[in-house]
Protein 1
Amino acid sequence: MPEPLRIETSRPPGAPILRSRRPDPCAVVVFGANGDLAHRKLLPSLYSLYQEGELPEGVRIIGIGRSGKGGDAFPDEYRRSIEEHGREKPLDDEAWRSFAGRLAYLEGDVKESEVYRELRGILSLPETRESTHGNALFYMATPPDLFPNVLEGLLAAGLLHRNKDSAREPWDRIVVEKPFGTDLHSARELNRQIAHAIDERQVFRIDHYLGKEAVQNLLVFRFGNSIFEPLWNRRYIDHVEITSSESVGIEGRGRFYETVGALRDMIQSHVLQLLMLCAMDPPVSFESEEIRDQRARTLRALRPIPAEAVARHVVRGQYRGYQEEPSVAPGSTTETYVALRVLIDNWRWQGVPFYLRTGKRLRSRETFVAIHFREVPLCLFGRDDLCQRLEPNLLLARIQPDPGMTLRFVSKAPGDELSIANVTMRMDWNETFQTSLHDAYERLLLDCMRDDPTLFWRSDAVENSWAFLEPILEAWGSDASIPLSIYEPGSEGPEAAREMLSREGKRWTELG
Ligand code: BG6
C-alpha cells in the first residue's frame, strides 16, 4: 500500500461555540475509595481537574472504603496512585498538599449504618456546608452488588433527597458505575430501587467511553459536516464494523471477570454506545434529552437475535490460558471475546449489517468504527486488473490509541499508463489540536457536577440494551452445543469470527 497522504489541518481561532457551565460547589463522596477505580481513575482525575482550576472552589472529596490499614494510610496511598496514574509527572508538592487539604477519609463498611452517620457528621459541619452549598455527589465505585446497600444507607441517614429540579441547590446526585446490572431483571431492579429513592435526573450512569473526546467527535463529525450525513444510510453504506480490541488480559480481575465476560463487560456498555452514536438519527437540537432520546431509539430498533440464531450470528471465544488465570475456575466457559452481527430495523439501516467485536489478549489495543461504503456501481476502466484494485471507500473513526479520522479513496497513480491506487487521508487528533487528551473520567466528573447528563446512560436505554442481549445470554446458558472458540493470545481472535463475515463476503479490518 502506498504511503498515506497527509491532509493539512488547522485549528480555527476563537473561543469554543458551546462553553460549558462551571461545575457547582459540592462534596464528592466516593464509595469504594480503596478500590482499583478510585486509585487508577477517580482520584487522579479529580487531582488533575483541581490542579487546573476546573473544580469548584469549595470542593470537598470524601473517600469511603475498607482499608484495613487504618484511615491514615489513605493519603499516602492516594499520592502514590496519582503519581503513577495521573497526568502530571512528577507531582508538584505544593499542589498535592493543597489538594490533600480537600480530602477526608472514612474507614467503614458500606453495609453498616455507622459509616453513614459519620458521613452525615462531616457533610453537616458548618464549614462543609458553606463551601459545598450543601450539594453532594455520591459516587458508587463499589462492586455492583453493594449499590443497593449504599442507596439504602444514604436514604436511612437522610442524606439523599428527591430533587425534581436536579439543578436547584442544595442538590444530591448519584453516579453509578458499570456494570449496571448483569441482565435485564437485575438492571430493572436496580432502576426500581433508584427510582424509589430519587428522580431519574439525579442519576448519572457512567460509561467512560462517552467521556472520550474521539467518541464525542462521532456526533460532531456526523452533524457538523454536510457532506457525510447524506451518505449515512443503506443506499451508500454496505456495512459497519465496530471493534474494541485489547492486548491485555484480565489483569488479575479473575473474580470479577468470571461474573461478567466480554458480552456484559464491553458489548452491553461501550460497544453499544459506539453503535448508538454511529447509527442514531439527527437530534432536533444538541439538548441532552434530545440526544439521549435518539440514542435510546436506536437501541429499540435493534433486531432481536432469537436463541436459534445465536450460534450463527454470535461468536464467543476465550483466549488460551484464561483458565489458568488466578480466580478463574478450570473449565470456565466465560467468554473473553465476542463478535456479533446486528441489524437495525429502521428506514435508514434496513439490511445493513453492523459487525461488532471485542476481546482481550488480541494482537493490538484498538478501538474504531469503520464505515464501509458500497462499491462503485460500474467499473469504467475496462481492464480486469484495474477494476479488481478498486477498493470501496472506507471512513475510519479511530477512537484509540491514536484518535482521529481516516478516509480511503481511489486515486490515479502517476504514469502514462492508466494505473490506480487506493490511498488514505489521515487526520490525527493530537497533531491537529496540539494537545494530549484528558482522561475520560475528568470530563464525566465535571458533567456530573454541572448537571449535564448527555454523556450518561438513561434508565430506558440501559434496559433496552439488556433486553437485546438477554436471548444471547440465555442461549449460551442453556444450549451446550453453542461452541466456545479458543483463540491464541496475540492473534486476531477465533477463526469462527472470521468465518461469520466471510459467509457474507466480508472481512474484519486487520488488527495491529
Ligand atoms: C472497562 C472494562 O469498562 O473498560 C475493562 O471493565 C476494559 O475490562 C476497559 O479493559 C477498557 O477501557 P479502555 O478505556 O482502556 O478502552
Protein 2
Amino acid sequence: MITERLEISKESYSKTITRCAEILNDDGIVAIPTETVYGLAASAYSDDAIKKIFTAKGRPQDNPLIVHISSLDMLNDIAIEIPKKAKECAKAFWPGPFTMVLKQSDKISKTVSAGLDTVAVRMPSDKVALDIITASKTPLAAPSANISGSPSPTTALHVLNDLEGKIDAVVMGEECTVGVESTVITLATNPPRLLRPGGITVEALRKILPDLIIDKAVLQKPMENEKVASPGMKYKHYAPKTETVLVSGSMDNFSSFVNSKNDCLAICFAEEENLIKTKKLIYGSSSDEKTLAKNLFSVLRQADSFNVKTVYIHSPSKEGVGLAVYNRLIRAAAFKEIIL
Ligand code: TXA
Ligand code: MG
C-alpha cells in the first residue's frame, strides 16, 4: 500500500481535510496530528476500519481504543448514563488532553472497546484533528500512531518511520505540543480513578473530582495475569530496543553514576550538560515538566541510534505533568529503576 502524505499548508488545508474525510468514510485509516501525540484514526462506526488499526499497529486485541469527538452532541451517540461529574469535567478540560471512560452506547463498533462495556472518549484541542472529525461526520477511534510497544509519535516523520506502507495516509502536521498522551480517568466506577496520567494533572482534576484515586498500575508494575482497569497499562511500552534503566537521585549522583559506566547513553536534564562526560541526550530542564513531556518520545526514539549497551534516564519529579513523564519512563524501562 502507498501511504499518501497529506500536506497542511495554507493552500492545501481544505483539500487535505476533505481527503481525510473521504478516506475515513471509505473505511480507511489515516494518521492525524493531535495536541498530545499523532493518532491513527478510523471511523468508530466501522468494524472493518477498526480492525485495520489493530493490524497496522500490531496491537493486542484486548487493548481498547479512545474515541475522538469534535462536539458534545457526538458524546450522546457514544456513551450512555453520562454522570453529572462527566459533564463538569468536559466543561473544564475539553477540548484538551483529557479522556473519560464511560458506559458504552451500542451504536459504536464493539471492536473499539475490545469487548469491554465501557468506552474512552476525548475531544482534542488540535484544530486539524477537530476539523477532520467534523468533516468526516463520525467520531474517530484513534490510538497513538506507532507500532505497538514503540514510543508514541510526536511528529509526522515518527509516524512514517513506523507505519509507512501500512496505512492509507498521514497528515503532515506540526510537532505535537503536549508530547505525552491524554490523561485517562474512569467515571464508570465509583470513586473515579486515574488510569493514565497526562497533560491534565491530578492537581487540576481533584478540583472537580476531590475523591479521585490513582490506580496503582500508574506507578507500579501490574502482577503477572493481574486484571488491570486499563488494558494498555499491562504492556511494556514506549521502549527503545536498547536496554533502558530509569535512575533517581541528585544531579551530582546521576552524573557520577553515568560517568563511571562504559558504553552508555545518558538521557538527562539541561542542568547536567557540563557534568556528564558520556554520550547524552537532553530532554529539558529538571524544573520544566512540560518541556520534558514534549521532548520525551523524541529522545526515546533517538536512543537506539547511539548504539550503546544501556540507556540510563534521569527520572523527573512526579509533580504536575512530571507524573505522566515518570509513568511513561518506568514502562520504557520495563520497570527497571535504580535509586542512587
Ligand atoms: O492522547 C491520546 O490519548 C492519544 C491521541 C491519539 O488522542 N491516544 C492514545 O491512545 O494514547 P492509545 O490507544 O495509545 O491509548 C489508549 C489508552 C490505553 O491505555 C487503553 O487501555 C485505555 O486508553 N482505554 C481505552 N479504552 C478504555 C476503556 N474502555 N477502559 C479502560 N481503559 C481504556
Ligand atoms: Mg499508545
